[in-house]
Amino acid sequence: MADKITTHKELEVYQRAFAIAMRVFHLSKQFPREEMYSLTDQIRRSSRSVCANLAEAWHKRRYEAAFIAKLSDVEAEAAETQVWLEFGSACAYLPQDVRVDLSQAYDGVLRTIVGMISHPDSWVLRSKQYQG
């Protein structure tokens, strides 16, 4: 798996998370102005953090514990974004079907991340993999 991937941008889970974050960004443009520094800011920050933490995890693959810790951050940020989506829907800023679709998309990201956490040997660099 990881042998063929040279950058975090090639990770399919990163590409999915980035696409979801961009969708969240565009949808959040329609949130009311009074939500700019609360819900809008929070949902954008957490959705973008999924991608940022994936990039950091990718570059910490030499250290299994650091890799897993960063992936745990990814998991937390994705779950946090799901909560903000619930608030957006409850406040009638997002249609319920859009919230469900985005939340399910994050469920897919979460499944992948949990799989990576559960099987770090497929991803972590061992000394022979990064020598000369």
Key words describing this protein structure:
132 residues; mainly alpha; 71% helix; 0% strand
Structure description:
- This protein is mostly helical and 132 residues long.
- It has a single domain (10-124), classed as de novo design (two linked rop proteins), CATH 1.20.1440.
- Helices cover 71% and strands 0% of the residues.
- The protein contains five helices and no strands.
- It has helices at residues 12-28, 36-58, 64-90, 96-118, 127-130.
- Helix 1 (12-28) runs antiparallel to helix 4 (96-118), helix 2 runs antiparallel to helix 3 (64-90) and helix 3 packs antiparallel against helix 4.
- It is elongated, with a radius of gyration of 16 Å.
Describe the structure in brief.
This protein has 132 residues and is mostly helical. It has helices at residues 12-28, 36-58, 64-90, 96-118, 127-130.
Question: What layout of secondary structure does this protein have?
Answer:
Elements (H helix, E strand, L loop, with lengths): L11 H17 L7 H23 L5 H27 L5 H23 L8 H4 L2
Helix pairs in contact: 1-2, 1-4, 2-3, 3-4
